[in-house]
Amino acid sequence: MSRVIVIGGGLAGMAAAVSLEAAGAIVTLLESRRALGGRAGSFEDPQGGEELDNCQHVLLGCCTNLIDFYRRLGVSSLIRFERTVYFRDGSGRRHDLWGVEGWPAPIHLGPSLAGFEALTWGERISFSRAMLAMMNLGHAGRDTLAEVSFGQWLDDHHQSASLIKKFYDPILISALNEESRRASARYAIQVFQDAMLANADGYLVGLPNCPLGQLYEKIPCRDVRLGTRVSGLRFNDHRATGVELQGGEILEADAIVLATNYHSAMRWIPPELASADSRFGSLDKLESVPILGVHLRFDRPIMTESHAALIEGPLQWLFRKDAEGRVLHGVISAAREWVNVPKEECLRQFVKQIHSLFPAALQANLVRSQIVIEKRATFSPVPGVDRWRPSQIPPPGGVHNLFLAGDYTRTGWPATMEGAVRSGYLATEAVAESLGLKQIEFLVKDLPVQWPARVFGLKPLPHRMEL
Fold first, then answer.
1. Per-residue pLDDT reduced to its tens digit, 15-48
2. Is the peptide bond before 314 cis (omega within 30 degrees of 0)?
3. In the chain, domain spans
4. HSE toward the beta carbon, residue 272, CA cutoff 13 A
């Protein structure tokens, strides 16, 4: 039987390990931390001893491979899907976006958009025209916009600054971890096509009922080694032969899946091999973007709904983390300007914002807080970024049996949990073909495009697209 080592226990590495086991390989999953999950994991709060998420992670109904991965872990019942997205404006007024159950896309969202009073009637009409344009583009048309900024596309389609602030930004900044106007039009339009326009289940919001780390406690992989650091890879000519652990132990392998972030991936490959492997030539051109998460515990209930998309900042999304609404988690994506702000100033602004949103918060006292900034959370999906994203598969002249997994690789998706799982499945399919394992197609199809969307021009995307 073939032995495969997967380095990195984030979503990409776990997806690769679980699917490789299903393909018949003997898998060893190595993770330097004491818990699985990576950026989508949890940690123990040193103040209260609670298990806290690094940052709130949300999945949508269109994340078909992530949903499949949770099914493989046996934790689907721990994900709660909601049919309403709760927006709040700067005055705390709530505006709900919901789909009519049983109606196909995109008409399922029509009634709630018609009554979405955060937008003026003119903005609602303008937004509807933009959605029609996105459907008319189809999948092939959006791919032609890979080199165009979404800001340019918005200007070309007469989307006002106030409309962008009130609707596009709350959705896209969190989905892409980038400012709406800076992002590639290809990926921005993909968010709307997949989540809102193609299938009525695409926009459903999935929230874990537990800390993220608990989702990975029973991963179906026989050899998972936590707290295990790799000191280097071993090579023979253009082939990886194994992994050397700190302490000197050598693990031999028929193939290696490198599922670390792209900064670490570059460090593992000797310069002479990296120069011959085109996957490593442009990784330094990817730009990292930070995400800020803040855990806030108050002395009394504040928030009743499960989440809120915030039209006014600084926090962009807020999540209720307990049954009573005392514990909240706020998120700022594309948080470049917050990296060096003192913690006390951050908390002052966050609490002030919460006071303005929820009347119950005015009498509440902040009992405990924790700010987590992931400085290298994701790569920036700027126009043209795909030319720098590597394939999972070794190129001719590259390291023959070294495969890559990570949301930064070519998945057809931006840097999301869905993209990470897709990369792991794609790496497994390539490893299986290379080693003669079971030929299983792990990549799950997208949600089908429903008939009204097809009428408006949105055609189904080929399942095995060229990446």
1. 999 999 999 999 999 999 999 999 999 999 888 7
2. yes
3. 3-39+213-285+384-435, 84-203, 288-379
4. 5
Q: What tens digit of pLDDT does each residue of 67-88 get?
A: 999 999 999 999 999 999 999 9
Residue type at 135 in one-letter notation: M
SS3 369: strand
Taking each helix axis from N to C end, the angle separating 417-435 and 11-23, rounded to the nearest 10 degrees, works out to: 30
CA 194/CA 185 separation, integer angstroms:
14
CATH of domain 3-39+213-285+384-435: 3.50.50.60
Give the span between the Cα atoms of 126 and 164, in whole angstroms: 11
19 touches 270 (CB < 8 A):
no
**What Cα–Cα distance (Å) separates residue 411 from each residue in 54, 211, 406?**
24, 27, 9
Handedness of CA 247, 428, 144, 134 (dihedral sign): negative
b/e sequence 36-57, b meaning 16+ C-beta within 10 Å: bbbbbbbbeeeeeebbbbbbbb
For 39, the token pair is 């950026």
Residue carrying the six token digits 């043209």: 384
> Could you give the CA distance from residue 460 to residue 62 in angstroms, rounded to a whole number?
13
- For residue 198, the SS3 value is coil
Q: Are 203 and 448 in contact (CB under 8 A)?
A: no
Fold equal for 3-39+213-285+384-435 and 288-379: no
Confidence of residue 298 (pLDDT cuts 50, 70, 90): very high
In 3D space, the residue among 182, 174, 194, 215 whose CA is nearest the CA of residue 381 turns out to be 182
Domain 288-379 is in which class? alpha beta
Q: Is 337 helix (H, G, I), strand (E, B) or coil?
A: helix
CA–CA separation, 80 and 287 (whole Å): 33
* Edge-first strand listing for the sheet containing 239-245: 230-236, 239-245, 250-252
DSSP 52-91: EESS---EETT-HHHHHHHHHHT-GGGEEEESEEEEE-TT
pTM: 0.96
Candidates 223, 148, 120, 93; CA nearest to 385 is 148
